[in-house]
Specification:
The protein has a 6-stranded mixed β-sheet with strand order 2-1-3-10-4-11, sandwiched between helices. Strands 7-6-8-5-9 form a 5-stranded mixed β-sheet, sandwiched between helices. By secondary structure, the protein is an alpha/beta fold. The relative contact order is 0.21. It has 13 helices and 11 strands.
Length: about 300
């Protein structure tokens, strides 16, 4: 099995922030809101008859809708509101859809959430856990094991794929590693740089030899391996990032507060549904707030300053 680095200081930042924002009383209140959601109440009179759940696929569009089917069925049952699922080919499209109120609830990456909070009034209500219950994941740079490469130094002058310009682990985090840590520009460090479009596509590009190395993350790599499209033993990890805050479930801030609380509680209830977690490819969810993603704002500001120097 491939190994990743132990938890870093980001873990402490995330967990401390969550503990400060949510106490035991808050936990009970939100879970109670979800449990009572199907009942008729004055607050529920403000709720819409339908919510649109937006998904950005790390795999194919039909695959991501199928992967999130247990969640959509669960939300519909608990909230008593029809859930319609839609997918977008990229993060930019999903943020635009949310800003135009075509999407009410969405599964985003940490970086795209920060942008959605600014442009679309998105509010983080839950953070994805990995299968070990850790509130985050790791960015990876992978290559074919048969290459014999062991570090990022070995792929200088080769071809490389990021995923999406708005991806956290597929662009922002590895890009900052190149600029901040290695002091190199990927455009000159590699012979060719491209965007694969998704984590699945970047991993498959390495597997089929379209590129020499690519950025992805441990959660999405595990999902691609589980699908049988790639054999884990055929790949080698050249670099592992520090812990990145887990991908958030977000809602539009103009939704009724009672509905937002009920959605949060409903997501927490999935922590007792191992079958749903298996389909989702995660370990459930933990409470999150906007401040949980301040580290992303820091990295994005560094990226902006780097761009200004060019």
């Amino acid at each position: 099995m491939m190994s990743v680095k132990p938890l870093a200081w980001w873990t402490v930042l995330i967990c401390a922030g969550l503990l400060m924002v949510f106490g035991a009383a808050g936990t009970r209140a939100v879970e109670s809101a979800a449990a009572e959601a199907p009942r008729t109440s004055p607050a529920q009179a403000e709720w819409p008859d339908k919510l649109v759940l937006g998904l950005v696929p790390s795999e194919g569009s039909s695959d991501v809708v199928e992967r999130f089917k247990p969640m959509s069925i669960h939300l519909e049952r608990v909230l008593g509101v029809k859930i319609e699922t839609m997918s977008s080919s990229d993060y930019a499209g999903m943020i635009t859809a949310m800003s135009q109120k075509h999407v009410d609830v969405a599964y985003l990456g940490p970086k795209s959430y920060v942008e959605a909070a600014t442009r679309a009034g998105a509010v983080a209500v839950a953070m994805e856990l990995d299968k070990d219950g850790v509130p985050g994941y790791h960015g990876l740079i992978v290559a074919k094991k048969s290459s014999g490469w062991k570090t990022v130094d070995d792929i200088r002058g080769k071809t490389f794929a990021f995923t999406d310009p708005n991806s956290t682990s597929g662009c922002l985090v590895p890009m900052m590693h190149f600029h901040r840590d290695l002091k190199v520009d990927p455009k000159t460090y590699f012979r060719e740089v491209r965007f694969a479009g998704s984590h699945q596509a970047s991993t498959l590009a390495v597997s089929n030899g379209s590129v020499d190395a690519a950025a992805t993350n441990d959660l999405d790599l595990a999902r691609v391996v589980k699908s049988g499209q790639v054999r884990e033993d055929d790949l080698v990890i050249l670099w592992t990032s520090e812990l990145i805050p887990g991908s958030p479930m977000v809602v539009r801030k103009d939704l009724p507060i009672s509905l937002r609380a009920a959605i949060t509680g409903a997501l927490m209830m999935l922590n007792d549904d191992k079958a749903a977690q298996e389909r989702l490819g995660n370990g459930g969810f933990v409470y999150a707030s906007d401040t949980s993603y301040d580290v992303m704002r820091y990295l994005m500001s560094m990226q902006a300053k780097q761009a200004e120097k060019k």
